[in-house]
């Protein structure tokens, strides 16, 4: 059992693959092929109508955009876009997921496009969507983060036991993950392990978290780092929509970086302000 001693202990673990690897795919294809051959041998002369269809390049099981989006438009498609580019909000800023394509959304789309080598025009069209489809898994999580990773709930799992309905908590965790994907990209697309994400009230108490911790809402993640220094992570987080950042120099945060979205959290009963502190990294309070 993982030992929690009042803090979050970064656990170095490899990231879980979310898709079948190339090798696994080909093994699966071989198995299917073998089954077809076996069938043909068993029933000579039978018509074999088994087609092994290759998956479409970006078959998307999560969400599909049906129009170009730009400033002045609004709708759920804008909101879906905002969730995925909120991690490109820029220094000390946030992109609200309000379904209205304003200047902040346009700027975030531009930064997203630049980060992935696309034409940076701030308009979401086929190129931008293709990149988003490539980045997202069928359950809508970004490629390098997953629901299980964000829901370690003291080893128990499940999104219940917090102050919010579990569906809301899970949705918050999804928003958190897209910001983490942006942060990870900024840090060179190297592994960025989450050592603690959502915590039920019981779990939060067990690990000695602050009583009104953002972890209870699905809006927070504690990060270890395999490749970058913790200060690199904390400093970069300032550009990716995280209004709460605590890292080295802040009490009990010398071994991980805490990031959260408290400014967007209307359920926690505290003012929607930015709160950063990692004095060892040159990040002041406030
Ligand atoms: Zn934390």
Give the helix proportion (percent range): 25-40%
Number of DSSP strand runs:
5
- Could you tell me the mean pLDDT? 85
Which structural category fits the helices and strands? mainly alpha
Count of discrete domains: 3
Task: Assign the CATH topology of the largest domain.
Answer: Muramoyl-pentapeptide Carboxypeptidase, domain 2
* Name of the CATH class of the largest domain: Alpha Beta
User: What is the CATH architecture term of the largest domain?
Assistant: 2-Layer Sandwich
Which blocks of ≥5 consecutive residues have pLDDT under 50? 1-50
The coarse overall form would be: globular
Q: Measured on Cα atoms, how large is the radius of gyration?
A: 21 Å
Total DSSP helices: 8
Strand order of the largest sheet: 1-2-4-3-5
Helix and strand sequence:
HHHHHHEHEHEEE
Please report which band the strand proportion falls in: under 5%, 5-15%, 15-25%, 25-35%, 35-45% or over 45%. 5-15%
- Which hetero compounds are present in the coordinates? zinc ion
Main beta sheet: strand number and arrangement? 5 strands, mixed
């Amino acid at each position: 059992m993982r030992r929690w001693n009042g803090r979050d202990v970064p656990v170095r673990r490899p990231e879980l693959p979310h898709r079948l690897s190339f090798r696994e795919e080909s093994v699966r294809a071989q198995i299917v092929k073998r089954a077809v051959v076996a069938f043909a041998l068993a029933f000579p002369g039978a018509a074999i109508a088994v087609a092994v269809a290759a998956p479409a390049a970006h078959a998307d099981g999560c969400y599909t955009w049906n129009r170009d989006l730009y400033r002045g438009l609004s709708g759920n498609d804008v909101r879906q876009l905002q969730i995925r580019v909120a991690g490109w909000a820029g220094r000390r800023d946030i992109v609200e997921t309000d379904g209205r394509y304003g200047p902040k959304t346009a700027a975030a789309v531009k930064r997203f496009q630049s980060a992935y080598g696309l034409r940076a025009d701030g308009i979401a069209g086929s190129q931008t969507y293709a990149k988003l489809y490539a980045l997202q898994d069928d359950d809508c999580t970004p490629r390098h983060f997953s629901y299980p990773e964000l829901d370690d709930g003291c080893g128990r799992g499940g999104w219940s036991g917090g102050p919010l309905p579990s569906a809301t908590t899970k949705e918050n965790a999804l928003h958190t993950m897209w910001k983490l994907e942006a942060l990870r990209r900024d840090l060179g697309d190297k592994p960025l392990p989450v050592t603690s994400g959502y915590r039920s009230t019981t779990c939060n108490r067990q690990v000695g978290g602050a009583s009104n911790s953002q972890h209870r809402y699905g809006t927070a993640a504690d990060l270890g780092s395999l490749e970058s220094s913790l200060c690199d992570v904390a400093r970069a987080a300032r550009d990716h929509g995280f209004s709460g950042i605590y890292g080295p120099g802040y009490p009990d945060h010398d071994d991980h970086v805490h990031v959260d979205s408290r400014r967007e959290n209307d359920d926690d009963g505290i003012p929607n302000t930015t709160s950063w502190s990692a004095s060892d990294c040159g990040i002041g309070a406030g």
